[in-house]
Amino acid sequence: MKIDDYRLLINLKDYRTIRATAKKVLISQPAITQRLKYVEETLGGKIFLRTPKQLVPTSFGEVVLEHAVNVIKNEEALRNRLALTNSSISGTLSIGASSLFSQYFLPEVLRVFTEKYPDVTVDLVTGVSEEIRQSAEDFHVCVIRGEPLNEFECDRLFSDPLHLFDTYPLKKGEERPFIEFKSDPGFQRLIENWMSSQKQIRFRRSMKVDHFETAKQMMKRGLGMTVLPESISLTEMDTCAHIPLVEGNRSYTRETWICRKEVISQLPQVDAFLKEIMGKDWTLGG
């Protein structure tokens, strides 16, 4: 069996359905089904029971999955040890990053980094910050929004003020549709706390979209108001009505953090990436 087979088994266990796994790893459902059948025939037993709602590991499968986890860990440990013995900067750099950071900031960072270190292979996973948090142990480096990770070394990259935007004047007492977008629970709580403190602005919660960029585009077409971070809406601040999210003397912001385990920083490719990203001027608008 290949390392990728073990990774597939772990993904099937984590995402619980072939459909969800296919969506996450970008492999077709028939290909995953065929590969799982091959693995089960090779090992001589059923790894999962197929129920109408999810895959359930069998007792046979639990033994295989435990072994799969150990195989992946040993493979990563070997690669890390080999990287430490190599004087040149090479190997694999695994990054988990929030969707917002990945869309607006990470491409340029990676362009510069890969030009400097062409022998480094970058493995990248993006998602809402909560998804990255849950999988933090799988990455060399995580870039998340909100609160820093517990038991990780974390450095703040920048603080991102939040604003309420609309194409219509934000008049007192006037009700407008509010466009929400999928985010992590921390961001949702922050927005809920601010909205509950507002007595002058009336929100009609009628739209919920999958992505902050979708919310921004719908707002720009006059369909309602939405809350956006300043870092991705500098142009809209010149063209749309907006107010900062404040309550008393408190400004509502989202912090962006880069996190890693201390021992991982010793890897040359990780150390080089940390120096690259932390050496950048993250002043908003700069």
UniProtKB/TrEMBL annotation:
Entry annotated with the keyword Oxidoreductase: no
Gene3D superfamilies: 3.40.190.290, Winged helix-like DNA-binding domain superfamily/Winged helix DNA-binding domain
Pfam families: HTH_1 (PF00126), LysR_substrate (PF03466)
InterPro entries, per database record: LysR_HTH_N, LysR_subst-bd, WH-like_DNA-bd_sf, WH_DNA-bd_sf
Keyword hit for Cytoplasm: no
CDD domains: PBP2_LTTR_substrate
UniProt record similarity statement: Belongs to the LysR transcriptional regulatory family.
PANTHER family registered for this protein in UniProt: HTH LYSR-TYPE DOMAIN-CONTAINING PROTEIN, HTH-TYPE TRANSCRIPTIONAL REGULATOR
The protein's name: LysR family transcriptional regulator
Organism: Halobacillus mangrovi
